[in-house]
Design a protein that fits this description.
This protein is elongated. It has one domain. 27% of the residues lie in helices and 18% in strands. The strands form 2 sheets. The chain has a 3-stranded antiparallel beta sheet with strand order 2-1-6. Strands 4-3-5 form a 3-stranded antiparallel beta sheet. Strand 1 and strand 2 form a beta hairpin. The model has no long low-confidence stretch (mean pLDDT 88). The chain is of the alpha+beta class and 142 residues long.
Length: 142
């Protein structure tokens, strides 16, 4: 258990706080795999002769979205069997969050997820309804 608490987890479904051992931050692995395949197929259609990927911004063939990380109570949502999950008690401090971010950066599938958006919403602490919410708004010039 993490001694210092900087963050609280708030369920995406019921918008109430998730206590230790009662929920997780998780992503559906099958969703990630499907989206990764969509990205690979999309990029293969948009690769230029020099190897760069380009497309028209308002084209109907826009890049695929990303798989979503979710924050849920165990009782609000049954996490799929093939899920990558992090118990909320493992993400209670900024150092723990940084540790998990560094760990996830080693995963080849991370770019196909919204982990960056989750981190940014936590850092900005801008009154989000759910997710990982700082107890105090982070101060800093970034």
């Amino acid at each position: 258990m993490i001694a210092h608490v900087d963050l609280r987890a708030v369920c995406d479904i019921c918008a109430t706080e998730i206590r230790d051992n009662k929920g997780a931050v998780w992503i559906d692995v099958q969703e990630v795999q499907a989206i990764e395949r969509e990205h690979v197929a999309w990029e293969s259609r948009h690769v230029d002769d020099d190897g760069t990927v380009s497309f028209e911004i308002f084209s109907p063939d826009s890049p695929p979205g990303n798989a979503l990380w979710r924050v849920n109570h165990d009782s609000c949502f049954e996490i799929p069997e093939l899920a990558y999950h992090i118990p909320v008690e493992r993400l209670r401090s900024w150092p723990a969050y940084l540790h998990w971010t560094a760990h996830l950066m080693e995963k080849t599938w991370l770019p196909y997820t919204n982990w960056t958006a989750l981190v940014m919403s936590t850092l900005e602490g801008s009154g989000q309804r759910s997710g990982l919410v700082p107890l105090e708004k982070p101060s800093g010039d970034w």
